[in-house]
Amino acid sequence: MSAEYLLVRGTDVAPEDGAARVPESVALWHLEWWLANAPGSAWTLFEALGGVEPMGLSRLGRSAEAQRLRWRLERALRLGELVVLSYERPRHAPLSFPEPVAEVEPEPPMAEAPPPQPAPAPIDTAAQVHALVQAAKDGIPFCEECAKAAAAQKKKAA
Q1: What is the pLDDT of residues 44-95, one digit of tens each?
Q2: In the chain, count of helices (H) and strands (E)?
Q3: Using CA atoms, how far apart are residues 55 and 4, in angstroms rounded to an integer?
Q4: Alpha-carbon distance 18 to 70, whole Å?
Q5: What phi, psi does 13 have (nearest 5°)?
Q6: Under DSSP, is residue 6 helix (H, G, I), strand (E, B) or coil?
Q7: Cα-Cα-Cα-Cα dihedral of 10, 16, 18, 22, to 10°?
Q8: Most CB within 10 Å of its CB: which of 15, 45, 109, 156?
Q9: pTM exceeding the 0.85 threshold for the entire prediction
Q10: Rounded distance between C-alpha atoms, residue 73 and residue 76, angstroms
């Protein structure tokens, strides 16, 4: 368990919360850290106390407003408008029973890769050229398109 702080309005503190009340000196000491590390939350507190967060200030103006914010929050803590309570935040305890272990089936062994395909035989380009030239000389269609064209010419001639 670790101690955490809860900042509440003084009117919301019940009499039974008196033991959890953090001394004013400790609250003021923590105020500097809260202002430096959570300025958005500090401005929210300021607005809850009736102030308005200024917009569009220069760097010098922001510095003056940050000082005004610090003074207002200090005053609220001293007057009891804001009260800091200490409470114990529970830590997550480990489970009291072990979780069942899921049985995992072993993966099947890897199949051997098929042997690589043999390399294709080298292409004899000269023989291809000779066959195409010979087919053209003899008028023999060598491809499907040429065969269709030759069949169409025979039909026309007949």
Answers
A1: 777 777 777 777 778 777 788 888 888 888 888 888 888 888 877 767 766 6
A2: 5, 2
A3: 32
A4: 25
A5: -85, 125
A6: strand
A7: -80
A8: 45
A9: no
A10: 5
Half-sphere exposure (Cβ direction) of 104: Cα atoms closer than 13 Å = 4
Q: What is the β-pairing status of strands 82-89 and 2-9?
A: antiparallel
User: Which H or E run contains 7?
Assistant: strand 2-9
- Extract the tokens encoding 42: 């500090």
Q: What does the alpha-carbon distance between residue 42 and residue 19 come to, in Å, rounded to a whole number?
A: 25
Q: Apex CA 50: angle with CA 32 and CA 22, to 5°?
A: 40
Nearest Cα neighbor of 74 from 63, 66, 86, 62 is 66
Q: Structure tokens of 141?
A: 């269609």
Cβ atoms of 76 and 83 within 8 Å: the answer is: no
Which residues, 6 or more positions from 157, have their beta carbon under 8 angstroms from its beta carbon?
none
Identify whether the C-beta of residue 91 lies closer than 8 Å to the C-beta of residue 1: yes
d(CA 27, CA 14): 18
What's the sign of the alpha-carbon dihedral 58, 64, 66, 68? negative
